[in-house]
Write a structure and sequence with these properties.
The protein has strands at about 1-5, 5-15, 20-25, 30-35, 40, 45-50, 70-75, 75-80, 95-100, 105, 115-120, 130, 140-150, 160, 165-175. The protein is mainly β. It is built from no helices and 15 strands. Strand 3 and strand 4 (about 30-35) form a beta hairpin. Helices cover about 0% and strands about 40% of the residues.
Length: about 210
C-alpha cells in the first residue's frame, strides 16, 4: 500500500496466479500478467515505512514466506513500525532497505522495543542508520535487528547515564542474518583487500 499525498495505490501480487493487481484509490483495479522482480524504487524519500500494527503487543509479520524484496530510495527512508518476517527460520524470505543518497532512520513514531528483519544500506556521502531524536525523551527500550547494516557513517541510537543504563533512544540488539539469503538486486562489491600474513622468525637465546 503506497500513499503519496492524497493518492493511495494498492498493489497485490499473486504468485500462484502469476498476476499483479494495481488499484488507485477506489478506481477499477488493473490486472497484469506476471509478478515483480522484487524491487520497489522511489525517486525521493520514504517518510513512513511500516509493517502491520501490533496485535496484543506482538508485531504480525510484514513479509510472507517466500517473499524476497528490496525497497530502495534516492533519499531518506524512515521506519515507523516493526517490520518482521513470517516464519523467519524457514529461510525463504528476505528484505533489503537501501537509501542511495540519504540515511535509513528510525522515526519518532516507532514503538518501544522495535523489531526489524532486514539488510539495511545507506551509502550516500553522509548516509547513516540512526534514530531520530535519539538524545531526547524517555528510553525506548531495545531495537532488535536481524539482518545486517552497511552505512557510510555509524549513526547514533542512544545516550546513557554514567552507570551505563539507557537514558534516551534505543539500545542496540543487532544480530547478523546467517541464513545465506540476499535481497533481489542488493548492491554488492567485487573489491576486496586480502590481508595476507607473513612468517616471522623468532630466536631466543638463554644467557
Amino acid at each position: 500500500r503506497l500513499v503519496q499525498g492524497s493518492t493511495i495505490k494498492t498493489i497485490t501480487v499473486d504468485p500462484a496466479a502469476n498476476t499483479t493487481t494495481i488499484q488507485v484509490g477506489s478506481g477499477t483495479p488493473t490486472v497484469y500478467t506476471g509478478t515483480p522482480r522484487g524491487i520497489a524504487y522511489v525517486n525521493g524519500g520514504i517518510s513512513d515505512l511500516r509493517g502491520p500494527d501490533r496485535v496484543s503487543g506482538s508485531p504480525p509479520p510484514a513479509l510472507a514466506t517466500g517473499t524476497k524484496l528490496l525497497i530502495t530510495s534516492t533519499d531518506d527512508v524512515v521506519i515507523q513500525r516493526d517490520i518482521t518476517m513470517d516464519d523467519y527460520n524457514a529461510a525463504t524470505n528476505v528484505l533489503g532497505i537501501y537509501s542511495t543518497a540519504g540515511s535509513v532512520r528510525i522515526g519518532t513514531s516507532a514503538p518501544a522495543d522495535c523489531n526489524l528483519d532486514a539488510y539495511v544500506m545507506a551509502t550516500g556521502s553522509s548516509g547513516e542508520f540512526k534514530v531520530d531524536n535519539y538524545s531526547t525523551g524517555s528510553p525506548r527500550g531495545t531495537f532488535h535487528l536481524r539482518g545486517g547494516v552497511v552505512a557510510s557513517y555509524y549513526g547514533a541510537f542512544f545516550t546513557f547515564y554514567t552507570n551505563g543504563t539507557l537514558k534516551t533512544g534505543y539500545a542496540r540488539d543487532f544480530r547478523y542474518d546467517r541464513r545465506g539469503l540476499v535481497p533481489p538486486y542488493y548492491p554488492t562489491t567485487t573489491r576486496f583487500n586480502a590481508n595476507i600474513p607473513s612468517a616471522r622468525t623468532l630466536a631466543w637465546k638463554e644467557i
